[in-house]
Specification:
The radius of gyration is 15 Å and the shape is globular. Strands 3-4-5 form a 3-stranded antiparallel β-sheet, covered by helices on one side. It has a two-stranded antiparallel ribbon with strand order 1-2. Helices cover 35% and strands 24% of the residues. The protein is an alpha+beta fold and 97 residues long. A hairpin with a 6-residue loop joins strand 1 and strand 2. The chain has one domain. Bound molecules: zinc ion.
């Protein structure tokens, strides 16, 4: 997994500060380019690299054009992030008791 550092930015979905992306591809030499998708590690929101390499909300048209296996992978990643966040909340609540 290769991590690419970015200028800090806020997720357009949740406002979480992010400064890097890691690829889910097995190709170690992969670097993001305009049009590539990413997912916020905090909220699971889908993100797209704009022409200036800033991460924005993807357009509905780009999402609709994704191959079904890519869509399924993104949905699975989003669900895993949301599940992990629910478990974190549960763990923080139970540690107070
Ligand atoms: Zn987010």
């Amino acid at each position: 997994m290769k991590t690419t550092r970015l200028d800090e930015f806020k997720c357009p979905w949740c406002g979480y500060a992010l400064d890097a992306v890691s690829n889910a591809d097995i190709n170690e030499n992969f670097s993001p380019k305009p049009g590539d998708l990413s997912i916020c590690i905090n909220c699971g929101g889908w993100l797209e690299f704009a022409d200036d390499m800033k991460l924005i909300k993807p357009s509905p048209g780009n999402i609709a054009a994704l191959p079904i296996d890519t869509t399924e992978s993104l949905v699975n990643l989003t669900e895993n992030i949301k599940k992990a966040n629910i478990l974190k909340q549960f763990n923080s609540e139970t540690s107070i008791l």
